[in-house]
Amino acid sequence: MSESRTASGGAVVENRRATAPHGRGGPVAAPAWWIWVAAWPVTAVFVLSNAATPLYVLWQRDIGFSKGTLTVIFAFYIVGLLGSLLVSGVVSDRLGRKPVLLPALALALAACAIFATASSVAALVVARLFTGIAVGAVVSAGMAAVTDVAGQERKRRAALLASCAMVFGAGLGPLLAGVLSEALPAPTVTVFVVEAVSLLTAVVAVVRMPVRSPDTASRGSWVRIPGVPQGSGSQLALGIAVFAPGITATSFVLSLGPSLLSGLLGTTSRVVAGAMAFAMFLAATGVQFAVQKLSRRTILAAGAASTTLSMVTLVVAVHTSSVPVLIASALLAGAGQGMGQLGGLSLLNSSVPPQRLAEANAALNVGGYVLAGVLPVSAGYLSDAVGLARGVTLFAAALMALAVVGGLVVAADRRRAGESA
């Protein structure tokens, strides 16, 4: 794909040998294989996002910290992600995808180095913070870049591949970390060396990605709570109503899942913990391909139902000490997140113009990750105070109520819209 650059009035214009852009500031349609390549940086960064999950038992043993501290370390990832989302979507829509993605990948590489040499809670907090910032950039700019490369005629496929890239990477990270840390020496080093190599390949993909610099940009503050254009607010609200409980359920499994496995199985096997997380996100990936032809609101309704069932089975698993039921809960949580994410992204892709898409993606993720940061941390400290079974039960009841509300919101909108989507 050839590229030339000319400067005029301080602006940089990129001309590429591809089909014509779909309107001013619109995406350039590229060959279909580029959609998959564009999704790879999203996958690579999300591998990092959860690669530490099976390794926390090692750090807890070597450094020494409680389940409450563990959820705080996880929460700093949410802090970094939310802070990034306040900036990355707007910057990406104004300056382009690459000026956001390349610094994000550099931060992800720095996080790998810190994880590999961590000897204190503070180091883990910094590494998780950097990881969160990088993830915030890819869920806004990276996922929008997939849509840009796909072009107007392949928006629905772009939403599917971007969403699947996210959840597949999130699941691959803990499985890869679990297997490598059990099979190879220096477990907390080897994992992040391998991840650093994958991030370097993502850098190459971003550098060569056929995306345009924006011709037009949104106005307003550079740092702000991300939003959507007028008329798209209802689509955003529907997505958040289902996506937020779904991603909170999977966040709980990632942060306290190894503790639950230890309590139910009496094992600290990193492969088992990583495999459960991988299975959860594999379900999130597979279900999106299974439901892709359904209407967007039907997908969202199914996502809310799956998250609700996940919390029911979680309570049963804890009170019966049943590992198979715990795994079923994780699979249902993954399916709930996957469908909530796909439905939300598809609604935004169908209604938001390209010059505001990264900010819209950021808005969806802010709505999801705020809840995902608050409830699992609360569950961790509550479990330290009242016991794991009671703390998990209270968490599950609260999240189940939110998932039911999300399902009711979608049902009400379907009746209002007459299932037009």
TrEMBL record:
The keyword Transmembrane applies. Gene3D superfamilies: MFS general substrate transporter like domains (1.20.1250.20). Keywords: Cell membrane, Membrane, Transmembrane, Transmembrane helix, Transport. It is a multi-pass membrane protein. SUPFAM superfamilies: MFS general substrate transporter. Pfam families: MFS_1 (PF07690). The chain crosses the membrane at residues 33-57, 69-88, 100-119, 125-146, 158-180, 186-207, 236-256, 271-291, 298-319, 325-348, 360-382, 388-412. The keyword rRNA-binding does not apply. It is found in: Cell membrane. Residues 1-26 are annotated as: Disordered. Its main location: membrane. Residues 27-415 form the Major facilitator superfamily (MFS) profile domain. This is MFS transporter. It comes from Streptomyces mauvecolor.
